[in-house]
Amino acid sequence: MGIDRSLNALDLCLELAGKTGREFRFIDGDAMELLPSLKTMLSDSVFINSPETLIYADPPYMMETRKGADIYDFEMDDADHKRLLDILTRARCMVMISGYRSELYDDELSHFTRIDYQAQTRRGPVSESLWMNFKPPVALHDYGHLGDNYRERERIKRKTKRWATKIGKMNRQERLAIMEVLTAPDDVRL
């Protein structure tokens, strides 16, 4: 489910969602108004109180952290950011928030895990942050983005391709022996 006040953003999401073959629901509205009371479809429980719910918030970044002017259909002032962070830090579900570091975000999300990474924008590389109220998973659902930067991601991709080629040339028994070592608990290996 996605919530956005921008019809342009919702149209883009619908277009991208249609290409996945999955069903998504999008709501035209203000997430700060809807999230605290939005009920799940399966029960009468509130979304943000359900531990299995994940809220990913990507609000307009704070003006003080940007190099450019207004670029969003709907901007947020400092009071709006404070209100959003109040809602999300009180939520009893999993929460992830994207943004540039600022004093407000660092203070309000000090108890969250923060991961910093380099991102490419129209104005060049920038350091972005992802805050989450849970520990990052050890196993990822998509390893295509593994690595702290572009060079490291490319190195990992080349390495996995080389290993896949080598393993693909082995007979089945050798592959199974290697798989057994790789899937064994760390304290049991070698």
Mind explaining what this structure looks like?
This protein has about 190 residues and is α/β, with parallel strands linked by helices. The chain has 2 domains: about 35-135, Rossmann fold, CATH 3.40.50.150; about 145-185, no CATH class. Helix content is about 35%, strand content about 20%. The protein has 6 helices and 6 strands. It has helices at about 5-20, 30-35, 80-90, 105-110, 150-170, 170-185, and strands spanning about 1-5, 25-30, 55, 95-100, 115-120, 125-130. It has a 4-stranded mixed beta sheet, with no helix packed on it. It has a two-stranded parallel sheet with strand order 1-2. Strand 1 (about 1-5), helix 1 and strand 2 (about 25-30) form a beta-alpha-beta unit. The termini are far apart. About 5% of the residues are buried.
